[in-house]
Amino acid sequence: MNKITIVGLGAGDINQLPLGVYKLLMQKNKRTYLRTKDHPLVPELEAEGADFTFLDDVYEKHDQFEDVYKEIVAILLTEAEKEELIYAVPGHHLVAEKTVQLLIEKSKIGIIDLAFGGGQSFLDSIFQALKIDPIDGFQLLDGTALSIGDIQFRHHLIIGQVYDSFSASEVKLTLMERLPYDYPIKIVTAAGSKDEWVKEVPLHELDREINLNNLTSVYVPPVKDEELLNKEFSRFRQIIATLRGPDGCPWDKKQTHLSLRKYLIEECFELIEAINEDDIDHIIEELGDVLLQVMLHSQIGEDEGFFSIDDVIEGISAKMIRRHPHVFGDKDAESVDDVMEHWQKAKSLERTEKQKSILDGINEAAPNLLRAYELQKKAANVGFDWPEVEGAWEKVQEELQEFKEELKLKQSVDQMEKEFGDILFSLVNIARFYKIDPELAIYQTNQKFKRRFQYIENKVGEIGKEIHELDLESLDNLWNEAKEKGI
Q1: What percent of the chain has pLDDT over 90?
Q2: What's the pLDDT score for residue 203?
Q3: Residues 131/161, Cβ–Cβ less than 8 Å
Q4: What are the φ/ψ torsions at residue 197 (nearest 5 degrees)?
Q5: Which phi-psi region, left, alpha or beta, contains residue 464 (left: φ > 0; alpha: ψ -120 to 50)?
Q6: For residue 251, what pLDDT band results from cuts at 50, 70 and 90?
Q7: What b-and-e string marks burial along 171-181, b requiring 16 or more CB atoms within 10 Å of the CB?
Q8: Comparing 125 with 185, which gets the higher pLDDT?
Q9: How far apart are CA 436 and CA 433, in angstroms?
Q10: CA 22 from centroid of its chain's CA atoms
Q11: Closest among 266, 256, 262, 268 to 296, alpha carbons compared
């Protein structure tokens, strides 16, 4: 097995090149491949007699960088079968070099033997050019695959591979998801060389610079304005911790899991109302209120030493992966029914030893229409169900008849409640067959009743009367009028 020796050309000119790397590049007994000739060091080395084989033509054959890197590695492996060779890349060979990482993967499975000859990272020169200390917190990210979720705006941020106006535009748009359009950034090119160039510009002008090339990086200073960090989850977590801290809010500090229960219920129903109204701004606000409840409970857990929001997120992440084997595993799902089957199988495996009944695990504090729905669904999952919906309809008629008979007997309110509950339970069963959520159904009916009754109130007010002054027939006519108008 032949060997490939990998070296880095550094970030600048020949004066920055380590002597050992210089000697390796100047030797004549091994062929030297360069990922690209677009580097200020190349003309200087060629002028001193170095001979290189460039791989720039591979870039012209592909639209995606991933394909470029794969072909470069394939070429190197093919040539290495014939002889030992040297492979040189810009900067440091282990910093932002995908081809080197692909070669390392090949070496781990015995396809090629690798050696490393050193090189200087462009980071040292950038730190010097910007006069920053990375110990304060530092990130290096790839400009060709920048994701807003990866960025820590409290830290020094250097974005590499911002080599043209298109990549600069993509970086700009990503950063502007969180930063103001005029946020000051710095463009750094050829750091550490005689051609070093550093320029501060407002963010929105990033892609207007013409001096962008493969030696260009973008520096984003740490965000100091706390208001700009309000979209950061860590910032929100800090706010809740402060509210519950020694110098925080007296109300927040005295809250417990028990005292917060009613607020969580209220916020969930307010969110449902916003969703039903299809009011996006209201949905955002109410989702925030629900998240606040989650964070308060998590902070209480952390204050008491039992759990934190990290445990909450870890638990739900693991559950989502576990219950979606058709996405994160090797199972297939062609339909929603297939998905639900995977979900129920995964859920059954999670059942603890304490759960003795199929019906265990249903929230006792949930609204009772919802509990009825869940009880029936769990029983149906093990075959305790009507084979067809007709049987459920017959059960509704049976329960109605029993309730009428109970009314005739007039024995007790308690017994009438039980019989009436049977009617509701059997109607929930009908809803389940037709995939109707009974809780949402009664909610919508309540809202409809509220709208129509308010219509009646408004109409009565227009004629200068009080609602109790009209007879039932007049009120019913107004009700039907609202109904005809689709209210």
Answers
A1: 54
A2: 96
A3: no
A4: -140, 120
A5: left
A6: very high
A7: bbebbeebbee
A8: 185
A9: 8
A10: 46
A11: 256
Q: Scanning the structure block, which residue is given the tokens 């103001």?
A: 180
Dihedral over Cα of 207, 208, 210, 215: its sign: negative
Phi, psi torsion values for 115, nearest 5 degrees:
-135, 155
Phi-psi region of 120 (alpha: psi -120 to 50; beta: other; left: phi over 0): beta
Residue among 268, 433, 255 at smallest CA distance from 365: 268
Helix (H, G, I), strand (E, B) or coil at 262: helix
3-state helix, strand, coil in the chain (%, to 5): 55, 10, 35
**Contact (Cβ atoms closer than 8 angstroms) between residue 235 and residue 229:** yes
Instruction: Burial-class residue 346 by CB neighbours within 10 Å (0-12, 13-18, 19+).
Output: middle
**Distance in angstroms (rounded) separating the CA atoms of residues 428 and 270:** 24
Nearest to 143 by CA among 171, 121, 166: 171
Position of tokens 């920055």?
16
Place of tokens 């040189």: 88
Residue 240 · residue 291 · CB < 8 Å = no
String of b and e for 193-208 (b: at least 16 CB within 10 Å)? beebeeeeeebbebbe
Instruction: Give the whole-angstrom CA distance, residue 289 versus residue 96.
Output: 41
pTM of the complete model: 0.63
